[in-house]
Every structure is written in C-alpha cells, then in structure tokens.
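ok so for the tutorial part 2 we go from a plain amino acid sequence to predicted structure tokens. step 1 is just haveing the sequence, like this:
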Amino acid sequence: LCTSTEEMARALAFVLDPVNQPVLVHCTKGTHRTGCFVGSLRKVMQWSLGAALDEYRKFASRKGKILDEQFIEMFDEKSVEFPHRDVIASNIPFRFIHGNHER
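step 2 — the prediction. this is what the tokens look like for a chain of 103 residues:
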C-alpha cells in the first residue's frame, strides 16, 4: 500500500462529509487500496477489527496481503476528523458492491 495514514484519514474525512455524498469508491484492481480504505472505514464505523479483516479477506481472496491487514489493524480511526462523529460513525450509509454482490 502506497498510502500514508494521513492520506487515508483525509480520504475518509472527505467521503464521510455529507456534502460529498454519495461517493463511489473503487480502484483498478479493487483489492489493496480499496480494501485498506474500506477496512479503515469499517473501523471508523465502529466495526470490530476482526469483522473488518474478515470482510477484507473475503473480497481480497488470494490477492490479500498481510501488509494491507497490518495497515488496517494499525490505522487509528480516531485520526479521521469529521462533523458529528458520535452520531454518524455507527450510521454511515455505505454499501459495498463487488461484482454482482451487494452488501
């Protein structure tokens, strides 16, 4: 992953700002940067680390990387600044679409 924690926090703050929604999150392959982004977002959404990593592994499949999992684990969700954190964090409207599957 070629993204710093500061860049990730800025990207997450951007998509969590209701002014910028809806937002489509994607990359060319859909596993590493996107997986780290979604895993970090899940932590902001107050998912357990285990649940966030399970989702990463499910969608990354054999392309998953331990460095991505370490990034998600070490990412400090409190570094993401967005308004109304206490209200929004557990109620973020976010759907993950992968191929023909929507979650």
